[in-house]
Amino acid sequence: MNYFVTAIGTDSGKTLVSAVLVEALKADYWKPIQAGIPMDTTTVKELVSNEITRFHNETHVFKIPASPHAAAKFEHLAIQLDDFVLPETTNDIVIEGAGGVLVPINQDDYVIDIAKELSTPVILVVNLYLGCINHTLLTVDYLKRNEVPVLGIVFNGESNFESESIIEQKSGYKVLLRLPKLSLINKEIVKYWADELMLSWYE
Fold first, then answer.
1. For the whole model, what pTM was predicted?
2. Rounded Cα–Cα distance for residues 144 and 169 (Å)
3. Which residues define the annotated binding site?
4. How far apart, in whole angstroms, are the C-alpha atoms of residue 166 and residue 145?
5. What is the CATH number of the domain that holds 30?
6. What are the two backbone dihedrals, phi and then psi, of residue 171, each rounded to the nearest 5 degrees?
7. N or C: which end of the chain has fewer CB within 10 A?
8. Annotated binding-site members for ATP
């Protein structure tokens, strides 16, 4: 099975969550669109310990850290949905999106449309900050109205019971993991949280 990691916004922790998922499931990793450096594939490689995971090449790599549609335009290029073809592998793939759900990749399509094009269910990363309830529930509303399958939520950041509980209640999505605010991120930390994720993965 493949998994598409998306979020309620930019800098939400998708790359960290992707690394935890890759380590937990011993899945492959693929970042279809990379805009700017550092490369997320490089970051995930540095955080994963298992020897099964393969890292697949990006479909598009752009120099500037911007919305994919803008980054592509800057380089006089264009992104089309049919650019994205699942890498050949016998393993599961964790696919990391770019930015949030409705980040445009061109004038017509959004990042979430890549998941729809590939028929891949979504894992939604919710970083906890003032305003995240509104941003999360707007995202959830869009996903539900567009019949995008969602496996669950990963909360990321300093715990906030009221925010987490209302999001869980209103979304109806399963909470897969609650990642605290981490002062240190390395292979050992990722392995610890990968083991924690597996405790709830099959519930």
1. 0.96
2. 15
3. 11-16, 40, 96-99, 180-182
4. 20
5. 3.40.50.300
6. -80, -35
7. C
8. 11-16, 40, 96-99, 180-182
Cα–Cα separations (whole angstroms), residue 4 to 35, 43, 109, 168, 194: 17, 18, 16, 20, 17
Distance CA 30, CA 26 (A): 13
Domain that holds residue 132: 2-201
Burial 39-56 (b: 16+ CB within 10 A, else e): ebbebbeebbeeeebebb
For 94-152, write each residue's pLDDT tens digit: 999 999 999 999 999 999 999 999 999 999 999 999 999 999 999 999 999 999 999 99
Q: Extract the tokens encoding 163.
A: 């925010």
* Three-class SS state of 154: strand
Q: Annotated catalytic sites, by residue?
A: 31
**Spatial contact of 103 and 68, defined as CB atoms under 8 Å apart:** yes
Q: Count CB atoms within 10 A of the CB of residue 129.
A: 16
Domain count, the chain: 1
Q: What are phi and psi of 56, to 5 degrees?
A: -95, 150
Known binding residues for Mg(2+) are 15, 40, 96
Rounded to 5 degrees, φ, ψ at 151 are -75, -30
Helices 14-25 + 187-201 axis angle, to 10: 70
Among 154, 141, 137, residue whose Cα is nearest residue 21: 154
